[in-house]
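re: that complex we talked abt at group meeting.

here r the seqs, copy pasted straight from the sheet so there may be weird spacing, ignore it
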Amino acid sequence: MNTAPHSFGKSLFELLSSMRFAISLLSILAVASIVGTVLKQAEPYNAPNFVREMKSFREHVSEQSLNAFKHRHEAATTQPPAALAASAQRYLEGQGYKVKNLPREDGVLLAAKAGSWNRLGYLLAHSAIVMICIGGLMDGNLVFKVQQLLGYKKIETRDIPQSQVPAISRLTPSNPSFRGSVQIPEGSSADVAFLNVADGYLVQDLPFTVALKQFRIEHYTTGQPKSFESDIELFDRSGKKIREATIAVNHPLIHDGIAIYQASFADGGTRLTLRGWNLFAPTAASFPIEGTVFQSATLTSGAGDYTLEFIDFRPFNIENMGGEIAASGDAMSVLGGSPVSDNRHLRNVGPSFQYKLRDSRGQAREFSNYMLPLELEGRWYMMSGVRASPNESFRYMRMPLDADGKIDSFMRLRGVLLNAGLRPEIAARFARQALPKDAWGTEIEGKLTSSAAQVLALFAEGGFQALGGFIETKVPEAEREKAAGTYLRILELAAFEALQVAQRQDGLPAPKPDDATGWLVRDTLNSMSDMFVYGAPIYLQLMQYDEVKASGLQLTRSPGKNVVYFGSLLLTLGVFFMLYVRERRVWLRIKPGHARALDTLVKQTATP
Amino acid sequence: MELALDQPAPLLKRLSWFDWLFAAIVAAGGLFALSRFGEYMDLYEKAILLAAIPSLAVAGWFWKPFRPLFLVVGAISLFAVSQYGGNLARMEEAFFLKYLISSQAAIMWMCALFGLATLAYWGGLLARSEFTMKTGSTLTWVAVAMGFSGLMVRWYESYLVGADVGHIPVSNLYEVFVLFCLITAMMYLYYEARYQTRQMGAFVLLVISAAVGFILWYTFDRGAHEIQPLVPALKSWWMKLHVPANFIGYGAFSIAAMLGVAYLLAARGILASRLPRLEVIDDVMYKAIAIGFAFFTIATILGAMWAAEAWGGYWSWDPKETWALIVWLNYAAWLHIRLVKGLRGAMLAWWAVVGLFVTVFAFIGVNMFLSGLHSYGTL
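got the structure back, here u go
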């Protein structure tokens, strides 16, 4: 294998996408903030100083210290000091300052301040963070962690029924905070929630019982889901109904401090009525099977014993059928096309169900079968997907439908082609059809019959694969292509004869020698060839279903939520005060006599 | 010398007749919408609509150019609505819609105009031509008007696609990228007028052009401009608040980062004679980060409250949440260093530039590389 050296870009990508990196970055920032707080202690930012500073007008400021300020201005005026002080005070108050008029031996000192909320903002923002952390801790699983450490509680890792989970892995309804989930099928109820913890889970007993009446999915016309809703009922422990509600995504129900959310959905055990087909039987007989999703059944068929595990049922499947979209107008294509999406290529192809077929050795393959036929290239097929492991995508076997829209003709033809007893007859019929009348009964007919019988036998053993293998071993390389063409032609024509036999056997009229029949024969041959790699001798056809849905609910109790919200409010206020209220101080020293009024120093502590 | 110590006139007296007219138009529009569509709104949506009236009016009073912008966007949008007449097919028939003001046309015009504005700002900066830079400003203004009209019309179009499909166009990566361009440009235009300097536009328009490039790629390569119905988790009035608040944050941080680049260049003497004084760049950078941080705080809190309603917990350490916290702490630290330690200069400029990478990763990277609850926009 060619291993490319790790490029810088790729390493960077891996670094950035790892959660560990995110957490490391967070920790560094957190440590940086702690360092920040420690550094701040050197300055007069502790709370009592803070409040004192907010209230203080710094009235004892001396002229000397005022002179030392950078923002300093002096002016002379003819107004008398008292009048000047009064108008200056009005002006400052108009600008939002609080002013104190302090008489001095010579004149007046006006000490003014504005924007003390800046400091309040600092207090608010920082106490808000403490508050948010406390709220977060209240909603965390600290209590459980302590209990676990002391050995009072233990995580359950076994896959056992909920009722058998021992008390050591259960949490009581009085547990102050939790976040769990539970899946309830329609018509059922639950009185516990499951908390995922590390590699196991805990069972949270609820103070009430939740029953699911109905789960609904609504769709947009384009097929995307529009809403998920559950009609639920709550009962108290004695079985009395407390309330009834419909919850939906973004619309939880809050009862008794426990919020119930619509979180997910799944199948809740849909009952399936199926028809089983033995793919390798020489007849077209089918057998009935009943199944329920999430349950398994044993299949005892002529083809051996299998465990049938029903995994899922989907009432609809929106598939991109990739139809051609007509190019839109010239102007629109310059603009990248109309923003109105063309969803014509999306189509609901109907229900499907998924199951695993496990053989006696425990080997399983997963299947996904559609209930309704699909139109491909103008013809209709029943589709059955198969894969060996969940990380593969499904490979589909497509079985052609007949003129009645059924797979019965396919199954009949398949049976006849696999029936060794009918092979001589089919081969003989083929030879007669292929040869002109004057060649009947000659050696050529005998040869043709035997080669047709051989081709049919090879095909019945392993499809085109087997034919190909035969040609590779028996025919010299130069003639292989020609031989393959001949063999295919023989096979197709013989299969057409087989169809005649099949129809006759079941007392049906002979097939018309038209295009549709031609395709039926060709598709049957393709499909049969695929059967050999299908991995199961059985095809299950979904005939009917009785859908049961299940709703996934999330249940949370978070007493710290309101603390966090209040903290958030304070944080927002704090941030705005801190960033947008400027703390300013102005001192005005007004002296009579020698035309010398001392104005302003604007100390802007909080101005960046 | 006589000291002029007149008291300033109170705010309401400082308002002109146009301010009042503007407020009246905003109120009339809002109330008309409420009376006409109120029956389709829930209580919260009505509250948001009513709260929008004073918010927009005050925005116009506080920042005067917002008034004509609002009126022009409103007029274009209403004209587009009248051209549609309830028929979506008119998009490709009516001349004005097809070439000018259908959402896609308007947004593509926005893209083109932002591109031209970038060229004009750079041309003006290099040639020291005030006129060319002024052209850049004008182009930016027109681009903003076209972009906002595009979003408004897209909002209307989404209802024409289907009554149940209609939603505010801030729901996927394509729409929020348009929003990002618009908010960033508007904030820049505010600072441009406030500081009476256009030179910084060359740098800010670069980040907008990058976003425009992304929009174009996303449109032509991925067809991401298609109006899609909302997934159930996004069907909430919270979206109207959470997303725009977040993008004020992202836009502001981007401006700060580009000014950081300008600062660092100027500090090394590159373009120094053409750019504003370092203190001015530094001050605008601080202002941008301050407003960005305030709105990012609000957006994150709103996001947590929405998460509590949609996902069953206000904080789940989802990748987007974790990265939002990283971004928040990053700028909180930046502000602390500046306000408490009084630090200025190259170090903070570098930090603002690096901050953009953190922000971009939180914005797009998380959606691209990390799966989580918040994966609405995929590439």
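couple things i noticed - The domain at 47-115+582-603 of chain A is CATH 3.30.160 (Double Stranded RNA Binding Domain). The radius of gyration of chain A is 42 Å.
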